[in-house]
Amino acid sequence: MKIKFWGTRGSLPQALNNGDVVAIIGDLLNEAEKRGLSSPSSIKTALDRGELSSPLSYGGNTTCTEVSHGEHSLFVDMGSGLREAGTFHMPNGVKEFHIFLTHMHWDHVMGLPFFVPVHVPGYTIKIYHVHRNGPEAVKINFNGVNFPLTFEQLGGKIEFIQLKLYEAVQVGDMKVTPFVLDHPGGSFGFRIDAGGKSCAIGVDGEFKRMTREELGKDLPYYQNLDLLVFDAQYEIAELASRFDWGHCSPNIGVDLALRETIKTLVFTHHDPWATPAKLRRMYKAAIKHATSQLGTFKSEWEAAGQPSGPKLITAWDSLTIDLDKP
Ligand SMILES: [Zn+2]
Ligand SMILES: [Zn+2]
What we know:
The structure is a single chain. The protein has a single domain, classed as 4-Layer Sandwich (Metallo-beta-lactamase, Chain A). 25% of the residues lie in helices and 24% in strands. It is built from 9 helices and 14 strands. The strands form 2 sheets. A 7-stranded mixed beta sheet has the order 6-5-4-3-2-1-14. Strands 7-8-9-10-11-12-13 form a 7-stranded mixed beta sheet, covered by helices on one side. The protein is globular. The two termini are 12 Å apart. Residues 10-11, 63, 105, 107-108, 204, 269 line the site of one zinc ion. Residues 103, 105, 183, 187, 204, 246 line the site of one zinc ion (ZN).
């Protein structure tokens, strides 16, 4: 099973301006100088080897995650990252796309009008939704006012599939099951199981319910899990002032991963105001938190064959994780 992140920003796309690029290059050159690197080739080599702060930029597309297994793939959400996914897959002969919607907030649906297959006859886009008003909310994108084309004028075929909570559907041999996340207006995570591997998308979610009792029917979707994609929009210190905004923080994900033995935890839905330096700082804080708490769950992690605890990753646009490779 592979997971590819086409968009990792939350709320709003975040384009780099010239000042941002200059700051990134400045930080890179300072770091290279401290390590005694001066030639462009030595800096490039060190970057490729991950010896310097990497990635240089986490990207700016809003949320869109592809999960694939064998010949089949599906997308969770269709933020602005979906645009690139379309032009990547079309030359490979893919004619049918499966998109699962967590919810209809703007950052999760804004990519569809610019997803080329919706405009080309012969392509089918299947949109799976739990919300009853899913079709209506997606069609707002094509009202002829906010976008020049109406839904009826689209060349591709869009089909809507109403999902029932906790009831699985199949895409190829991937089993996809929706569960509940804590988010204003409702948001639904998806757990995907195939070929003995599993991942779950926990975005957008505030994770107000954290104990096993509070999670209740949603608890099994975090158990025996290889990878969890986690809503890590804010630093832990920011959470109190953003109560009820529907997003979470890396350290809360660490607590969940440690307790439920989730092998890999991926932070995403980055705040549009989060600079690369802030994301790196949040990542270091999460590593420190995991290290300090690991002892409490030592025996569980030893039994799971991963005594160092959960692997933590901050996602960036185009990151690909292959769960079948060690
Ligand atoms: Zn969002
Ligand atoms: Zn949202």
